[in-house]
Specification:
The protein is of the alpha+beta class. It is built from 4 helices and 6 strands. Helices cover about 35% and strands about 30% of the residues.
Length: about 160
């Protein structure tokens, strides 16, 4: 009797293993899924910062800026302290979803699709914004918002 229970348990375990393997293999062919490309250090910085900002975690977002980081939007200025980095991140009226990061050697350009932040009235947060940045040691040392490209004549902006 013991032997038959043990044999049944082994049979059930083998069947379960086959079902799991069949479910994981999925397609029935021998191709393997393409490996996920590793993100560059610059991409990890911009995506980490954007994620913190989108959670309204301004303290975490501020940690992505080096002491003295150069910021350029409508004006150019530096972040002389952690408090300045915190204030800068709090001042951004929009959330942004990173849609693309293009490496350019020492710098990279991140493209964001904007969305309004809840509780920030009167802001226009639609469209796309691009930021050229330089990161070192996991922190932005330069963060420059690029001007919007003009739409070609005869097309909607």
């Amino acid at each position: 009797m013991r032997r038959s229970l043990l044999q049944r348990a082994i049979g059930l375990a083998a069947s379960a293993a086959l079902l799991v393997a069949a479910g994981c293999g999925g397609s029935g062919d021998d191709r393997q899924d393409a490996p996920t490309p590793k993100r560059s250090a610059a991409e990890r910085v911009v995506r980490g910062w954007s994620s913190a900002l989108n959670r309204d975690d301004f303290a975490a977002a501020a940690e992505y800026f080096a002491h003295g980081a150069l910021i350029q939007q409508t004006e150019r200025f530096r972040l002389p302290s952690r408090r300045a980095a915190l204030d800068f991140n709090r001042s951004l009226p929009c959330r942004g979803r990173v849609t693309k990061v293009h490496e350019e050697g020492a710098t990279a350009v991140a493209t964001f699709t904007l969305q309004p932040r809840p509780g920030v009235p009167g802001t226009s947060c639609d469209g796309i914004v691009r930021v050229r940045f330089r990161a070192r040691g996991g922190k932005f040392v330069e963060w420059r918002q690029l001007r919007q490209r003009a739409a070609p004549q005869g097309t909607a902006a």
